[in-house]
## 1
Amino acid sequence: MNKTALITGASSGFGLLTSITLAQRGWHVLATMRDPNRRENLESAARDAALQDRIEIHQLDVTDADQIAQTTALIASRAQPLHALINNAGFAVPGFAEEVSDAELRDQFNTNFFGATALTRAILPQMRRQRFGHVVMVSSISGRTGFPGVSSYVASKFALEGWTETLRYEMAPLGIKVSIVEPGSFATDIWTRNAKLSAAMSDPDSPNAARLARWQARVQASAKARANPQQVADLIARILETPAPKLRYVIGTDARTALLMRNILPQRLFERLLIKLSGLSD
Ligand SMILES: NC(=O)c1ccc[n+]([C@@H]2O[C@H](COP(=O)([O-])OP(=O)(O)OC[C@H]3O[C@@H](n4cnc5c(N)ncnc54)[C@H](OP(=O)(O)O)[C@@H]3O)[C@@H](O)[C@H]2O)c1
């Protein structure tokens, strides 16, 4: 029997690639996306790999409680157990912390934190009944260390990390595994189509306008260095196939370097380096 995985945000990036990768490795994939009109990329990738019969597409906006309930009901109605839940859906709100509005901050948390935690809570009773299951949270290196310009994203991922680490301790005695993936910068839609710039970023009167422009230029200049997202899909597949998975998996040279620097450099030096690299000094 094929193992079944449910993944969120499967219309692009890591979610799409992970759906294909898992199906290639013999999994049955419930690939969910908030907008089914965006199914074409996944469908054509599945067709090209002759994997259509292993990938089902379902609608799921993780901020929609009714759609979460429908997804839970769908899983409960099946004869097959659910082996894995991959909470992948997410986006970023670039902008300086001083100026990101309360509404923008809440919007960020609604998807990256409350969406992932609500879906996990809804699925856990199924995993309890089965007495097995594996929850994988796609966090970020931004869930381990702060970065200028993405405070709301960093905050949502720090919150997700804290919740998930605790969940792991609570679920381990029940046979349910919990892991966190922490990618560095990979070439997906997150910093292009899916970046929801804070309103202040297009305000010429912002007191941070010049620094924001320099920061944005640095981010754009680094775009070429973004890594191949297939690495993350392969890692998620390996984690799901590991008998005793770890809590955290860092992936990407930039992510490893940032963590190493943060751990070995004195805080003041790390800070100065980050500020300089981000173009923030006046
Ligand atoms: N790429 C990176 O450098 C990087 C680094 C660290 C962590 N991550 C994390 O990786 C995850 C996947 O992002 P990605 O890089 O693959 O970017 P992506 O290509 O933009 O994919 C994000 C996916 O999330 C979906 N999504 C957004 N809001 C949603 C919602 N409310 N409900 C359901 N789906 C929603 C998007 O749907 P639509 O197609 O409808 O927009 C899209 O399918 C995110 O959690 C992100 O924080 C990415």
## 2
Amino acid sequence: MTAYSARAGDRLPQASVADTAAALADLLGPPIAKGVILRRPRMVALAERLDLDRRMVRRMQALRRRYGEGPLMLRLPGRSQALVFAPEDVRRVLDWTPDPFSPDSSEKHAALAHLEPRGSLISRGPARDVRRRFSDAALASDRRVHPLADRFATVVRQEVDSLLRWADRAGSMIGWSDFVVAWSAIVRRVVLGDAAREDHELTDMLVRLRAAANWAFLHPGHPALRARFHRRLAQHLARAEPGSLAAAAADLPAAPGTAPTDQVTQWLFAAGPAGIAGFRALALLATQPGAADRAAAEAAGGGPELPFLRAAFLEGLRLWPTTPLILRQTTQETLWHDGAMPAGTGIAIVAPFFHRDDETLPFADRFHPALWLDGGRESRLPAGWPLLPFSGGPGKCPARHLVPLLASLTLAALLERHRFHMGDPGRLDPARPLPSALDPFSLAFAVRPAA
Ligand code: HEM
């Protein structure tokens, strides 16, 4: 890493008032309107129609042209806030998490405290370490294939079969409202076991907590509902049903301060966007040339590896990241090339900018799964260029292998013997740049048995 050589008195570039206002509108506007913790379908549809997320990329490119590679300080009353542009700065922020770059930013804390006040993401010091270790161990964060993968494959197969049977009988389109029923059942069974399959109320309670969390500081919260949700989750975890993540968690040595239900709330909550990403990947596979045949051939080969389906899923997350803003907050003053950044500064890494910077990446707006296949990133990206669907460094998502595993198993079960025809394929016309946002709630597919 290059040495950061500024002295404490040097000042980082600062955006003008007008550029700060434009940055807030274009960078925060789309994620906040769409709902940070729970998506609002009408706003998600509007974002696709107006190609709103393109503005995030364009704004970052304009700021980079005007102010250089930063970090750039925004001019905000009462809040010190920075944007990062240089790949080496992104790497530094992620690699030096949680100190001096804590994931526990004020905004994230306010939002997540509605659901999981003792969650690892909004904890600090030894409490964060112990909570993060719990998720790492139960989710087998370093393993490409989770030890319980065989059981997960059975669960996925059963739920997808019942979805496909329903589609055959109804002879109609499969839409989000059908897919999400199957996906939620998969998630409850994988995380908590078969006895939780029908516990729709648990999912509904979490939806209400997430809706309040969208408002962060501005919503008083539902403390009674939260307590009820955590009690019910604790009962599910206590069963430690064999073959579930609850059992994997129960096998871990009990460490004081872990707060298991708070960590598992994050798992259940984050499985929502994973379903959205899986459904978008299905749309890519249905529309991009040759993709469905390749997927079907891979699915027929069996096994949990499924490299192409994983790559297609990850490519969907590059194109439409479900965590568009990765937020950190500095715990002490930090020095950069051009100046010092005060303690308590919020840092935003704008994922869509790095994923879709068409001034740097020739394939920015195309489906390019080769990026995620062996050696793809090294050979196709400028050195050190970040793609961050799951963040990076010690704060990266502990489900970065588990999520692609579950999603690729689901896509394999869907595509092995069926063809999906998107109702409105023009939305993902391979001859045109892919849209900056893709509303999953309005996707629908006609399903036919493969010839
Ligand atoms: C599309 C699916 C998902 C994506 C794109 C994703 C992405 C991320 C990202 C970017 C972070 C870092 C957030 C930050 O720094 O503020 C994160 C954290 C986390 N994710 Fe995921 N995630 C997904 C699904 C899941 C699932 C299904 C689970 C659990 C089964 C999970 C467990 C966690 C946990 C426990 C953390 C907190 C880590 C920490 O405190 O350091 N994620 N995820």
